[in-house]
Amino acid sequence: MSIVQVSNLAKRFGATQAVADVSFTVEPGEIFGLLGPNGAGKTTTIRMMLDIFRPDEGTVRIFGGDLDMEKKRRIGYMPEERGLYKDQKLEPTLVYLATLKGLDEKTARSRLGPWLERFDLAVHSEKKVQELSKGMQQKAQIIATLLHEPDLIVIDEPFSGLDPVSTRLVKQILEEQRQAGHSVLMSTHQMYQVEALADRIVLIDEGQTVLYGAVQEIKRSFAGNAVTIEGQGDFSQIPGVLETSNRNGSWHLALEIGTDPQSVFRTLAARENVRIESFALEEPSLDDIFINVVQNGAAKLEVGNA
Amino acid sequence: MRNLWLVAKHEYVHTVARRGFIIGTLAIPLGLIGLIALIILVEGSGKNNLPVGYVDHTGVLEASRQATLPDAGDHVEIWAFPDEEAALAALEREEIQALFVLPADYLETQRSDLYYLEEPPSNDVWGEFDDFVRINVTAGLPQALQQRLLDGAGITVYDTVSGREFSERNVVNMVLPFVATFVFFFATMVGAGYMLGIVANEKENRTMEIMVSSVTPGQLIGGKTAGLLAASLTQLGIYVVATVVGLKLAMPYIPELQQATVPWDYLAMMALFFLPAYALIGAMMVAIGASVTELQQGQQVAGLLNLVFMLPIFLLPIFFSNPGHPLLVFFTFFPTSSFLTVSLRWGLGTVPLWQLAISWILLVASALFMVWVAARIFRAGMLRYGQPLNLKGAVEAIRAK
User: Can you give the pTM of this predicted structure?
Assistant: First the structure.
């Protein structure tokens, strides 16, 4: 049984079609990436999934059925537009939010201590939220999401506002949650953050599913759509190349779908001012795939047993 | 139900712990205590307890009859003097504070002379001597007749429909509902203001989305309303207790208060209208709070709305001259003004039962409708950060399936 099953969701706000046709599932014990550029419809999709917005079309099934209060308690949600009661103290606020998820106050308090220690917030527990830095508030939000030990964690842009140390800590915690058998749905436009974490992804653009499947299979299917070149000369203005960048002295070329790497090689070889020392096909990063699919308007693609 | 209770409890605890709430709640009792202390101080320090003297040339006054005055123990002593010379000498020595001289034709002319040194006797002392003269003049008459003459003229109007009575001797009973009206209304508007602040702050703090992922919008708003209502009732309870204690303390110093009775019929009627009126105003504030992006915007809109609710206050002259005026009957039926109009009409006159019934039914119906509308607008507007919900959007939200 899928933890989440979203089928053909659509939502319109006035003249704007925020979500046109989005489908995916989230399976038990996996980290699932909901990806897309800003304004693609990720947040609206999540809000429909959690019954905050009602979809115009499509269906959502959570834990095998419609979302009810009992199932809401099994979900930990950290929205993109997040905040805590600024004029209230940190500890009572987190305990209050946990009790709304079904915990009694005593249990909430006993669970809260270790989390505050882990996020270096224990000394700030009696401070008002408005006295905490933005990063501290972000960490407090993560605690609020996890304190009731949810089976499904839904996090919208989990790393925004976090320093590198905290980002690493959050990644570690998400990994722990997966190992504990909990499912994580992570929405972000930062592809590189998902690459190492997510098992599967769905990429939506302009409200529609454009890419859906296991991360490794997607990368394999897009292999050949990027090349790495060692050499010197002018590597710009190459037909069929979406983006050219230099990383640590190597040239990295993201190719349009359908572009034959051999034709790129021939174009470069024909240039008198270019010297090629090595030319290799590379496994594309999710960033490359994202650019390829979104900017190049690639056709809808489902990979493997999505 | 558990979540509704948790939200209500959290809202109540948070509201009553606010500095503004504590100050607002204690301000009235403290003000009342201050007022009573002032009255006691003025009464205590300003009262001249020296005896009053009199010289009676009519031969009808007997000093011993002052013992039959009501509350005789609280009165100043009244001393009889055989002639003006001895009495004036006592006044010069400041043994008495004033001297009344009743000439032989007093019973015909009802004219007397008053002597004092610097300050005339207070109205209370004057009244006490007046009572003493009345008792003496009517002595010898049958007791019932004497009592009737001592009571003097007094008009009491009985309303045959409601059974209420209005007497010029019981001004306090007429004033009390009037004062209570404003206390109730003040508490309602303060509660409504909190409601607006809570919803707008929830949006400003970006906590709305976290909350509605744990509770339903109905539980969120219902819990907050219940918490605030409990806080308002706490405030009202403190006001009522403070008023009762204050009146008890002030009673010995303000004789008019001794005739006061608790207006139970009025309180029952207010309780009946209070909840739906509170729900109506609260729901409107929820709708406004969910539609705007900042509390300040909401307060501007709410300010205009408050004027609509306070409209009857601008018609006070009509309330005093004719509580049954057709315009006031209209405002009795109009839901936003019915609470205040009914309260004021009830305090100053009577309201026919059929008008009360129609008014209450219309108020309850409009409150239920507004709660339904507010829930829809709240759901549509709660996550609109930085973009207010316009009228078209609100209508669409209300009409949405």
Answer: 0.71
